[in-house]
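Researcher: Go.
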Amino acid sequence: MQIAYVIFEGITWLDFIGIYDPLSRLQSMKFLPGFKWDICGYSSVCQDNFGLEIKPTLIQNSLKDYDAIIVPGGHGTRHLQYDPALIGWLQSAAEQATKISICTGSLLLGAAGFLNGKKATTHYNEYEALRPYCLEVLQYRIVEDGNIITAGAVSASIDLGLFLCNKWAGAEAAAEIRKKMDYWG
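Model: Structure:
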């Protein structure tokens, strides 16, 4: 399985790290030894609103060959949802790929058209902003609708990571990873 983490200017790093940590353990703990990922950026350096930067390993690469794309949220999503170039890049993801978002990353999935006819969630302050993009906004921590999985506000990223560990490697793997993380949320 190959996934793409999508990072951008104005990201909230906990949205990214919260899901990255449990998913990386699928490989390091040998639950999915072939599990691979790329950190894909829209620009060569991506910063949060406080100036912390992470450099992507790939820049504006096609997303068509990934089994899943993961789009974190952050303040940058509020204007990036209207950026035709960034949205076009997201649309390069294969139709059958699983599209996953944390927090306001769902606004980017919505702007790309991936949420049409789907139920989704986002940060509780952005429910109204998400409504035009999807069939129904649910006020749940995690919403799965077909090949779309969305999670609520920032701390939901850890829960979503463990949800995906369970989905992709089973309950025993998710329980072991949760234990190693000492996470009981």
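Model: Residues 13-28 form the longest helix (16 residues).
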